[in-house]
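Forwarding the complex inputs:
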Amino acid sequence: MAAHNPLKSDTTRRGERTEILMFMPSVILLALISIFPLAYIIYISFMDFTISVDSPVFVGLNNWVRVLTDDVFWSSWGRTVLYAGFGLLVEMIVGIGVALVVFQLPKGRNLVLTLWMLPLFVAPVVAGLLGRFLLNSTYGLYAWFLQLLNLKVELLGDVSTAMAAVIAIDVWEWTPLITIIVLAALQSMPQEAVEAADIDGAHYGQKLRLVVLPMVAQPILVALLVRSMDIMRFVDVIKISTEGGPANSTKIVGYRLMEVAFRFQDFGAAAAIGITMLIVTIVLGKLFVRLLMKGGVG
Amino acid sequence: MKVHSGRSVIKFIILYTVVIILLAWALIPIFWMVQSSFKTQAGMFSLPPKLFFKPTFATYGYMFSARGGFFRFILNSAIAALSSTLVAVILGAAGGFALARGRFKRKKDISFWVISTRMAPIPAVILPLYIMFARIGLLGNIGSLLFAYTTFNLPFALWMMMVFFEDVPVALEEAALIDGCNKFQAFLRISLPTARSGLVATAVLCLMFAWNDFLFASVFSSSNTQTIPVAASLLITQQGIAWGQAMATGTVIITPMLIAGLAVRKYLVRGLSMGAVK
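Prediction (whole assembly, two chains):
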């Protein structure tokens, strides 16, 4: 349509040029911080750095073979699935539940939400320290509570409970994120639909399933995707609270990468591990963008 | 709400009981940390917990003395976080505006690129950066942290500013264009001031992501450029953990972020859902 009007087409082109110029600095820096490291990590995965960081030797698929035949690599991915799977499941259920509870409150909704979201601002390193302090079996407050119930365990130091404990720390910190997203969606729901269901005499369960949840399904999916990408990003809590132990029981893949790279100085193998992590992020990112571009969220 | 009917009263009681339990779960750790930071070493470990005690400032006194070195750590954290925020927000505002207004053919691909850069697992980013920094001698330099934090803050700021500029009516800019502004001037004088609260929220979140980072700083910083989360982690030693200092350090780390986060509360949902939910 612009082509029919020479004047308009001219301004459009000039406008686009401004926008390209405004976008350029970001693109250049973004390329430097994303494409360059990506290309570099692929390169590293084919090189051996053990002799010298400055003059690595090409080793072909050697690093890849070593990583893909390494049991610890696969078990660390297994634990990542467990960690992320259970963490996200609890966060989604509790987060949505809390949003529904807060939504029901006749008074004090804002205050309750404000207090509930405070853990979101806590640095993961502090969350890890707090977990360690509270769960310590000799002087931890939570361990003391558990002892009153006759449960005397070192939760972070026992193979059977350490994973659950680090998941609980993640749940403590990030469940409020799900709550605030779902609550925002609930509050923007058209009131008429809910009221119509009231008049029809639907009880709470029906109303929830048939009217409310379909309306907040998209934001819930967004929350889930954002959290799944983020739960893969961090290993801070595990690094501080368990260091992957005891007996590897909390060694998720991100932690394994850090260990292979910076304890064993085996950069090539670490790079191969990193690429497997990036592939998962890329798939999740694709899903997220596809969901957003469909529109209709929020 | 009909407070008179029996069912409503029961519902009311159940709801608020649940709320109290939830808030206890969320807040006890934070409360306990802050309280412990004002206790003596002996008082900190005494259980059952005492709610009332004579607070001591000894731990903070030591930390902020020359030997504790905390001013240094806070300064390092602040420099790294502020500088990366500044870079991210300036470039992000210009680039986000261009993304919101320009008719780029591959907008979907650009969006995907930005999102996946933002969401890349930190260990997988640290590794190539570490080797690059080692080769160019940037390890231990505060510049390495500026660069590292920009890897997540720039894509975040770009994306958020795109979302916020999409909310600014194009008609405002068109009016400015008719008045003789060029497009960049319209951006600077009309759109940017209109989107300023979004800009502030984006900046605060960038600041928080960088301030709260531990992993990048644990690998890239040296004793001179140590940030405060790294200082916190170093209190864990083979001999044990200096819990008084750990709790005080934790309190120092979270206090500015609690204040900043609550200040931009209105925009948190947008920011933390990558703009997907208002």
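The mean pLDDT of chain B is 90.
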